[in-house]
Amino acid sequence: MDNLAPLANIASILTAIFAVIAIVYYFGNRISKRMRLEKFLQGEKLYNPNHDPLTTLHLIAKLGMTEEEIFRASSDSPNITRITVEDRSSGLAKDILFEYVDGPQSN
Description:
This protein has helices spanning 4-47, 56-63, 67-76; strands at 54-55, 80-86, 93-100. By secondary structure, the protein is an alpha+beta fold. The protein has a single domain, classed as Arc Repressor Mutant, subunit A. The chain is elongated and about 75 Å long. The termini are far apart.
């Protein structure tokens, strides 16, 4: 019974260490995906200046990211703008296009 207090202290310290590691991993992964998306879109714009903005499906295929990861990365980035394409018959959104822009933009 006398050993429980030191073990509880060690367990709480280890829990805090693992929590910090998990937070660093989570945000590092999120920043990495944002930078990958920015770099890809910037390269497309630089090397293909007449290229149309890219669709979500195109980015999923090229980057190997999920749709949610692409939307999250584009929301985190001040340099990526989203363009909504409307269906002419219904007026609803048909697709969302992504484009790299120089300088921060409001999304």
